[in-house]
Input
Amino acid sequence: VASIAHRAQRPGPLARARLWASGFKQRETWVAYGFILPWFVGFSIFIAGPMVASFILSFTDYSVIQKTNWVGTQNYHDLIHDPKVVIAMKNSLLFTIMSVPLEMITALTLAVVLLNVGRAAGFFRTLFYLPKMTPPVAVAILYLLLFNGSVGIVNRVLGWVGIRGPFWTTDPNWVKPGLVLMSAWAVGGTMVIYLAALRSVPQQLYEAASMDGAGAWRRFKDVTLPMISPSLFFTFIILTIAGLTEFTKAYTAFFGAGTKTNQTEAALFYAVYLFRQSFEFFHFGYASALAWLLFVVILTITLIQVRVSKRFVFYQGENK
Amino acid sequence: VTQEALQTSGSAVMPPPAAARQPRRWPRVGALKGVLFSVLLIALSILFVYPFIWAVSASLKTQAEVFDNRLIPRHWAFHNYSDVFHIPDAPMLTWIFNSVWISTVGALAVTFSSALIAFGFAYFRFPGRNLLFGILLSTMMLPPEVTMIPTYLIWKHLGAINHGGQYPLWVPNLFGSAFYVFLQRQFFLGIPRDYFEAARMDGDNYWTMFWRIAVPLAKPALIVTFIFELQAKWFDLMGPLIYLRDTALFTLPLGLKTILDSFGTSGGGQGDWQLIIAATVIAVIPMLVIFAVFQKYFLEGISTQGRKG
Output
């Protein structure tokens, strides 16, 4: 009797499983599964299956043409000692470290400017957003032309103020800064996110801060920034992942048919190297190992960002 | 007392007078600051718009004058825009058509399939829901590079690559996409449950309820999905690079890359840049038009994206 009473009070795992399973006797459950069936199928074929396959492939020397051998951890061993991997990873990290802060600052500046424009805000918002609607391939082509060392407009303008601009697209030291600047042109998305966040900051907070004698900078630093910190944090993570996987602009500008010049090493981003190993050299086994390394790096960096940001991000209505 | 009040109002305590007249979000800026602000605004506008103006202008110049950086071409070369359609081995018109087709079909497919899935997760309570939705959300974190090679091998096995076909570029859209499912589910959750109960009373089954109630009410979220995916497909280079071998099947971004590789010496200025630029302008304009028409939805969609953070 005692045991029955006990079980009635706290259903054991078995009882809970039974309750859970009884849900499957209901028609509604099956209708629901019918609705989500497309995802289920897609997830199995295009995500779960390929993930397992990619993991297995990374322990082989699969290359379509030759006989496939099981090579154990050889690929992972190789990629640590592959100088190109080091270069590519360094390139992607450098690009990310330069582009993420620049894009965030640019976007925030634009958003704050828009907030002050008044009635014409809609017009200027459209203006600042347009670069985001430009295909990355087109952005890369514009980059090659505008940043051209000898005839590009960027160096022409720098010349007006007496600066001799570098050869952006051919000097290995200046390839990444040029790409970073070009990326900061298309920050419309981030800007819109910040604009929405800025607009939702309660006006009373600014008034209260003014009452306390806070100047414009103090109000920005102590009211605005904490209030929009969730948006800053979100874009920080999204932009970092985008930076680490940057492919299209670098590939368009520096790779493809017959580009074998020294600046290509400076633009060899990790995703570009991964792509070349896969679909130009057909080293599918090795490329799979490269992909898993990228995944682990992204995951690690994101986790660190989440950890560190916890101290700075302020969520409204959260009890701390 | 008056003296005291005056002193108080004279100090920084009083809010600026303009704040009372018109509700501004930001404290009013003084006259000099106003001028500086206008200068900043104009400078930023030039910075963000000039590349477009430069491109349109350069696309109308002759080969020799492309880099003269003049705003108005010295010699107008409107024929660049007809020449670009007559480049050997570069069927621009076909590429445009391919891009329009893949973008539209892909966007339609992902909008519809994501709506089904999102509705499934939003309306029903069923065993395994939270677990499955958690898995769905976590797939957003997965870089496509991880699944890229096996997915390619599947399509290769099915013969989609050697026998020509753009299926790999849009068929996966029939199975929904995690981000859009998330976006639309939020929207479905916002629809009052009474609406659905009432529809059930009227004799609707789950399917007609989805079509008659959920879909019309979630139209903004569906439009956001459609235009986001339209843009994503219009922009995509890696997909076409992986799957398309036949020039006649290329999309516009891959076509642009092809033209760039055949005419432009990388980083130099020897090739037929006026044609490359004309092709670039052609690739850019449709998305600018789409943005002009659907601006409201773009901004709404992006803001929602930020709010979840």
Summary: DSSP finds 17 helices and no strands in chain A. Residues 83-117 of chain A form the longest helix (35 residues).
